[in-house]
Amino acid sequence: MRQELMSLPKTLAEDVAKNLVMVAKLLDDEPERAYQYSRVALRLASRVAAVREAAGFASYAVGKYAEALAEFRAARRMTGNSELWPVMADCERGMGRPERALAMAGEPEVQKLDRAGQVEMRMVAAGARRDMGQADAAVVTLQSPELASNSIQPWTARLRYAYADALLAVGREDEAREWFAKALEADQSGSTDASDRLAELDGVEFVDALDPEETADPEEAADGDASQLVEESTAEESEADESEVEEPDVDELLSDEDMVEAEPEDAKDVEPVAEATSEGRAAGPDEDGDDR
What we know:
Blueprint lengths: L1 H4 L4 H17 L4 H14 L4 H13 L3 H15 L5 H10 L3 H7 L10 H17 L3 H8 L2 H4 L7 H14 L3 H14 L7 H8 L16 H26 L6 H9 L34
Helix pairs in contact: 2-3, 2-4, 3-4, 4-5, 5-6, 6-7, 6-8, 7-8, 8-9, 9-11, 11-12, 12-13
Protein name: Tetratricopeptide repeat protein
């Protein structure tokens, strides 16, 4: 990414980098804000592949699959690599086209993926099978050397979890429980809710240890009743004071404190352009053909 940004004027590169950092920082916990930052970066440097990729993941995180697919296609055309192939296929699923996702799983691009990418593609293909009502085929799709391996890799927990979920969908509950347990064993980062699924299968219900209403101290309750009059007497004043305080405009906060909205003088050299396919059409989410 750093090398790509070096192709921009210095001030513009710094502004784009700031927005990309915020996208990465907020993507998991505040995807909507991450999406807004990605749109700013896209306006500033739409010709940079890293920007298009970041915009794609931000769109994907908020469920804007058509936008995400368009950005991923643009990034892939710029870089020529296939590492985004699985998430592009998953965008097709998100757009209600599982048959296209399944077709992508059989394309030559899959052979160019590293092991992690191929595992990801397998999970997307299994999801597409389930979308099409082929639950048994989804189970078979996930059966692989990576699933059988005892080695713990970054994808292991998610692969085992997907397999357990597929087994449960076809009524193989005992096997599903076993694989949810294996997923939990491999899930060192807490990326799945395997523990909750296990508890659900075992019929375990989690309740609060203490019920505030049942454990309240009678004396404290009496004190509370006595002080209620005081609280009510000041409620109107507090409400009046609060009504005078304007709610901050979130968009204004983003643009003023975090986002880099204004383009530097050097940015006039970079004009956003519509990405074109090899046939000369603008790339977009409604494009019927893929970008192979």
